[in-house]
Structure formats: C-alpha cells, structure tokens
Amino acid sequence: MAQAAPNRLFGAAFFVQLLNSIGHRLALDSDVYLDKG
C-alpha cells in the first residue's frame, strides 16, 4: 500500500506531460493549418 502513492503520482505526472505534448502538437498543427489557409 505504501507504493501506491508514488506510482499514482508518477502516473499523474506522466499523464499531464502526455496531455501537454498532445496539446503542443495540436497547437503546432493548427498554426500550420492557419498559415496554409
């Protein structure tokens, strides 16, 4: 039970980083799309 918290924290940090990278990728794609449009 003592290892559940660190694993959860690591999972949350990884999830946030994944969301940030996806959001950044979407922002870049939308910027390119707007430039082309």
Care to describe what's here?
With 37 residues, the chain is mainly alpha-helical. It contains one helix and no strands. It is rod-shaped. The relative contact order is 0.09.
Summary keywords:
mainly alpha, single chain, 37 residues
Overall average residue pLDDT: 82
Classify the beta-strand content into a percent band.
under 5%
The SSE string, one letter per element, is H
The count of DSSP E runs of length 2 or more, i.e. the number of strands, is 0
How many separate helices?
A: 1
Task: Using the CA coordinates, give the radius of gyration.
Answer: 16 Å
| Silhouette | rod-shaped
Q: What is the helix content? A: over 70%
Terminal CA distance? 54 Å
Write the layout of secondary structure elements.
Elements: H1 4-36
Quick summary of this structure?
The protein has one helix at residues 4-36.
